[in-house]
Amino acid sequence: MSIAKYQTTTVAGPAPVTTPDYCTVNDVRWSLHTAWQEAEAGAEDTFLLLSHLLRLVVSVAIGQTRGSQGHLREIRVLADSLADIPAVQSLIASLEQHEDVWDAHIAQGSCPTQTCDISAISPCRQACPSGINIPNFLAEIAHGNHAGAVDIIVQDNPLPLVCGVVCPAPCEDACVRGAKDDEPVFIREMKALAAEQTLASSAYPHREIAPSSGKHVGILGSGPSALSAAWYLSLMGHKVTCFEKQSAPGGMLRYGIPGFRLPAEILEQEIEQIRHLGVEFRTNTEIKNVEDLQRDHDAVFIAVGTPVSRALPLPGVNNDFVHGAIEFLRAVRDDREIPECSRL
Q1: What are the pLDDT digits (tens) for 232-268?
Q2: Judging by DSSP bridges, how do beta strands 239-243 and 280-282 pair with one another?
Q3: Residue 65 pLDDT
Q4: Where along the chain do its domains lie?
Q5: Average pLDDT value over all residues in the chain
Q6: How many CA atoms lie within 13 A of 107 on its CB side?
Q7: Less CB within 10 Å around the terminal CB: N or C of the chain?
Q8: Is the pTM of this model over 0.90?
Q9: Across the chain, how many H-helices and E-strands are there?
Q10: Which three-class secondary structure state does DSSP give residue 317?
């Protein structure tokens, strides 16, 4: 698809009227893109501000800001600081004259005229099991904004540091750079870098916590599924308690992954971020009857994971000297003695 098809002359003045086959958001998007290209040779501060403004407008245009009115506020603030640029003047005029079109993109994650490329999701993001907006968080890192990168990541995954260490990185397999006989972008390592840099100076950013709902959610387990649910439920204003039968939270992240692969201190840092939201962890607590939780909570989320190995259907599998992979890994993590055998 040719970009030239969408580029327009960057002149100041009233924003064009939106028609059934035309969208002012899309027009502004490509006008800003042209202005951004022209600004690369100019003042660095202006170029960086224009880069950030362009990313915000593109996010609105392609439907990645559903329900996030904060984007429009940030766009207006940035536009006011760059008001001497003709393309930005057209953006300001568009926001004033066609606010309903911008609001529709935000509210519905879609274009009223169906002319914006709403379905344009990058291959790396499509491959990510969490659907993280990878291009946007990499762009924030490129401009030295590690906290901004983490802010994008935790919208879909509250464990950026853990995943930056142990994720198998299917996103890198789908990276278009790698498809062109080049090395893929080191997405996993960049995610870990952003998380480390952010934790070194502050806590993870997150959206404003909603007013208390008065509801209490009980979560059975404290592995990755439970931790994710606890993070997002807390942000929604619910009180959350996680019940864990082991001595520390983390589930398979703590007891199924060897310490040399995922050090306990890395996991603790991210669990602490969840504690900061008010989540309570009750360890050494085994729940044998879900009905007991239901009596004391408005909702219950069962996230017990896979605590027991699945044995192969082979003769002798129940002999004492046969050890399941999960039980073996848990014993290694707990520094328990591993029975020796003469043959493996």
Answers
A1: 999 999 999 999 999 999 999 998 888 888 999 999 9
A2: parallel
A3: 66
A4: 3-108, 123-201, 216-302
A5: 84
A6: 7
A7: C
A8: no
A9: 17, 4
A10: coil
